[in-house]
Specification:
Helices cover about 30% and strands about 30% of the residues. It contains ten helices and 17 strands.
Length: about 350
């Protein structure tokens, strides 16, 4: 790290130094190399340091609480810094009530499935019922949708949704993946919903898998997609023209959509392991026509070949690497059922 907070006594990376400036009343930052340092400031840094600050400000972080890394969106990193230093949520357990209580209700802006308009919808998260539900009218008695916690996933998607606080929630409806897109103007509110969903999933999994260590359960609470983006695809006969589609690689499921914000996928491809004869190859078979993008990918499955085309060589490399990661991972017994 090339920056430090001389009021908290911690060293921070460049991107987090900007977030620390948002709480200037608590954290004042300087460049380690470029700014002048007084001897008292140096002594303070020496007396605290990151490990001591962590011991002080992260005394009771709930197991399910999402700890962001440098790869995560600004909102998650900003709210982690605020929760830790500004609100001191991990020193006082009462301050964790919004996401630890097992019940949460409030209003979120939800994107309309057909018209793309965002409208205020009442959401309720109930651990006791094992559901997340929302209502179309504020005084409605019956929910518009009931999402079972055991199939729910949540992932922040600011770029795709077009708002810094945008969250994509997915759940299974009649065995199909349904996407909904929500946001709230208040960043804390949005991250509290996210961690509330993680808490509900954690407690569900603890009951479903008694005795399983936390290290097994925590990666299952929420998952970010392995990769997303546009590719072209053709149909099973390989004679149809290639069509541009938005692809989402969610664990072993490669889903494709006409539009990135569609409610349902047009279809999906299961990507198994190499021990089951799944392979990925650069390029397309000879004599294939109808594609516009030049950088092909062939996925060979036990049943058929799936053909895709990428716009750039870099895209092609990234997608092949993503597919290869999944194919190289041995399949788990429960994945065969899916």
């Amino acid at each position: 790290p090339e920056w430090a907070s001389y009021t908290l006594g911690v060293f921070v990376c460049h991107s987090c130094s900007g977030l620390h400036r948002n709480i200037a009343q608590i954290s004042k930052v300087k460049s380690i190399l470029l700014d002048p340092w007084s001897s008292s400031e140096l002594e303070f840094m020496d007396s605290v340091g990151n490990n001591a600050a962590k011991a002080k400000f992260e005394q009771i972080v709930p197991a399910f609480y999402y700890r962001p890394t440098h790869k995560d969106c600004t909102l998650l990193r900003d709210q982690w810094i605020r929760a830790k230093y500004e609100r001191k949520e991990f020193v006082c357990v009462e301050r964790q009530e919004p996401y630890s209580a097992g019940y949460r209700e409030g209003f979120l802006w939800k994107r309309g499935r057909d018209n793309g308009q965002y409208l205020s919808r009442k959401f309720i998260l109930s651990e006791r019922e094992g559901v997340l539900k929302y209502f179309n009218k504020h005084d409605a008695r019956e929910p518009k949708a009931i999402m079972k916690i055991n199939t729910v996933n949540a992932t922040f998607q600011p770029t795709k949704i077009g708002t810094a606080h945008g969250l994509q929630i997915t759940y299974l409806k009649d065995n199909s993946t349904r996407n909904i897109f929500v946001y709230h103007e208040d960043g804390k509110e949005m991250v509290d919903w996210f961690n509330g969903i993680r808490a509900a999933r954690f407690h569900y999994l603890q009951v479903a898998f008694p005795g399983a260590p936390n290290s097994d359960l925590l990666p299952k609470l929420t998952r970010n997609y392995i990769k997303e983006g546009f590719m072209e695809k053709t149909g099973p006969k390989h004679t149809e023209g290639f069509k541009k589609r938005w692809f989402t690689m969610d664990d072993r499921r490669l889903m494709y959509f006409k539009d990135p914000l569609d409610a349902y996928a047009r279809g999906e491809v299961f990507i198994g392991g190499k021990e089951n004869s799944y392979t990925v190859l650069p390029g397309l078979p000879p004599n294939i026509q109808g594609y516009h993008w030049q950088f092909g990918i062939t996925i060979v499955t036990p049943d058929r070949k799936f053909l895709f085309a990428c716009e750039t060589e870099e895209d092609q490399k990234d997608w092949i690497a993503a597919f290869q990661t999944v194919i190289n991972r041995p399949m788990l017994p429960q994945e065969y059922a899916g």
